[in-house]
Give the backbone structure.
Amino acid sequence: MSEPAPHEAWLQGWHPQARRIDSPNFGPRPADTVIDLAVIHSISLPPGLYGGDEIERLFTNQLDWNAHPYFEQIRGAEVSSHFVIRRNGELLQFVSSHDRAWHAGQSSWQGRDNCNDYSLGIELEGLEDQPFELAQYTALAQLLQQARKAHPIRQVAGHEHVAPGRKRDPGKAFEWGALRTLLGWDPSCFPSAITSP
């Protein structure tokens, strides 16, 4: 995914190079919200299987709950994220960055609750304990750089950091150091637990 030209700025919060798949699972952000956090997640449906359309179906409320035994555990879930990055680096967008996607749930970051209000949700296709692909790190770094031009993104955290004890993604297999290297951002942009030497 190349850097968008200046005329390709995000139009109404939609990334010009993402494949757009509109999710009904979103709402307005609180008035005067500053979007300054990106929350990184991991997802695969069914867990550990990649390449299908189940994530898209989940985020658009079209998943067949009877298609796999695991789906019974999430039956009725109405969730979304702003972006999904597939294993090959393909970028999907489900919710405008101007709107509030339903990705973090009950959450808090540095004393501020309800991370959905002020964050972008980015899902990587993968599992917490399985390595992610180089193409995903590259696409993620490019997306974050571009997001920073559209919004005043100051920090990046994992779902595990904003919902500790409840969530553990993107998990131990996610290489925060690789992302930091690709971005070149100051260590203060990342959770302190992952920036220590």
The first helix runs from residue 54 to 59. The chain has a mean pLDDT of 93.
